[in-house]
Amino acid sequence: MKYIVMRDDDTNALMPVSCLERLYRPFLDRGLPVNLAVIPKVSAEASYVPGQPEKFLMTPNPSSAKYVPIGKNKELVDYLLANPLYHVVQHGCCHESVHGRREFDHDDQADIVHRLEEGAHLLRQAGFGHPTTFVAPYDQLSTVSLREVACRFRVLSTGWYEWDRLPLSWRPKYLVKKLTGTPHWRVGPMVLLSHPGCKLSYQHSYDQMMEEIEKSIQSSNLTVLVTHWWEYFRDGREDAPFINILHQTAKYLAERPDVQVVSFSDIAEQKIALN
């Protein structure tokens, strides 16, 4: 059996509910879980590079507040709670720069702990329960962040792991992972997942996207497929061909008898084999 985790990043309080419904109704109708990496308290000033607002800031900020907790968007929260096949995981805290670096790519332990705990609190407060899975903005974590995440979460989903950033006690297990060629590994009770890059992205060839997804699925018993909802609605316009590929993916996953789409919660609860 091949296991697939659908991970969509950057759900936040400043986004239209209609975007998720447009993208994922074919998944929900087929009983396929979708894991949403939710920003607990999005920065209304978040920018990829200075002066360029993040593209996930799609709707105007209804207040002058710099930060907007996910619970402030009642329509979005109600929609997610009404569709239990959406699984909420914690995506950073505010998705902003700290000390001139990515939110969890620095060594200020007090700041990292505050953001991890505040983010989890805001998700609980909104009604989503305590998050068991963490996704760092841009998949970037410092050594300090890795240690603190391991103290609080059962699953870490990221793109890659760098030897120089790993805590020393983690390195022997990472070396075994590399020597055996396995994409996923464990440190204590925490599962560390990697993914093959964002295969569902407008930056790739639309003609070859399904083929690349199929190759990724064949390469491992467990594959994390990562995408970003806002990529399908760039510049305020719907990219219908790209959305069609996402919907083809839902059909493909539902119809393959040797594929099961699972949630990060299934992994945290050790319901499936990793490799």
Describe the secondary structure blueprint for this structure.
Blueprint: E1 2-11, H1 17-29, E2 34-38, E3 41-43, E4 47-49, E5 52-53, E6 67-69, H2 74-82, E7 86-91, H3 109-125, E8 133-135, H4 143-152, E9 155-157, H5 171-180, E10 185-187, E11 190-193, H6 209-218, E12 222-228, H7 240-255, E13 259-262, H8 264-268
Parallel strand pairs: 1-2, 1-12, 1-13, 2-7, 7-8, 8-9, 9-11
Antiparallel strand pairs: 3-6, 4-5, 10-11
**Terminal Cα span:** 11 Å
Name the CATH class. Answer: Alpha Beta
Low-confidence stretches: none
Order of helices and strands: EHEEEEEHEHEHEHEEHEHEH
Kindly state the number of beta strands.
13
Q: What global shape is seen?
A: globular
Number of domains: 1
Kindly identify the CATH topology.
TIM Barrel
List keywords for this structure.
TIM Barrel; 8 helices; 275 residues; 33% helix; two-stranded antiparallel ribbon; 9-stranded mixed β-sheet
Compact summary:
By secondary structure, this protein is of the alpha/beta class. The protein has 8 helices and 13 strands.
Please describe what this structure looks like.
The chain has a single domain (2-268), classed as Glycoside hydrolase/deacetylase (TIM Barrel, Alpha-Beta Barrel), CATH 3.20.20.370. Strands 1, 2, 7, 8, 9, 10, 11, 12 and 13 form a 9-stranded mixed sheet that branches. The chain has a two-stranded antiparallel ribbon with strand order 3-6. The chain contains 8 helices and 13 strands. Helix 4 (143-152) links the parallel strand 8 (133-135) and strand 9. It has helices at residues 17-29, 74-82, 109-125, 143-152, 171-180, 209-218, 240-255, 264-268, and strands spanning 2-11, 34-38, 41-43, 47-49, 52-53, 67-69, 86-91, 133-135, 155-157, 185-187, 190-193, 222-228, 259-262. With 275 residues, the chain is of the alpha/beta class. The relative contact order is 0.19. The N and C termini lie close together (11 Å). Helices cover 33% and strands 20% of the residues.
